[in-house]
Amino acid sequence: MLTKMSKAPAFGADFADRVNKNVVSLEQDVKAVVAKVQLGEADAGVVYSTDASAAGGAVTALQIPDQFNQLAIYPIAALIKAPQPELAQQFVDLVLSDAGQQVLQSYGFILPKASGQPPPAPSPSPTR
Questions:
Q1: Residues 42 and 79 in one domain
Q2: Which of 33, 63, 91, 100 is most deeply packed, by most CB within 10 A?
Q3: What gap in Å lies between CA 32 and CA 36, rounded to an integer?
Q4: pLDDT by residue (tens digit) across 11-31?
């Protein structure tokens, strides 16, 4: 996200460096980041929207514009050689159903696209 924002003229090429100079702690996981913000031990943290949603309204989430956002992609499929292929397919069907999508949305997930096509490959990370 910071690298993408640094490429935008509105933020400037040194944006990531300026943000990183203000980082005062690096946590082991996103739950620790959210906890620090909840407890007032940090002014802000960067986590996925699902992690902010899990805080139950105790933190304010700011949306990252799509062109800068980093999306997590969670493919789902029933394995051909699954020990219980019918049950595996039922699970996939449940997740992709309206009820399943409502559950995902309630936890802050962006709804999946049930196109039958594989998700797009993530953009390669720039190397230094």
A1: no
A2: 33
A3: 6
A4: 999 999 999 999 989 999 999
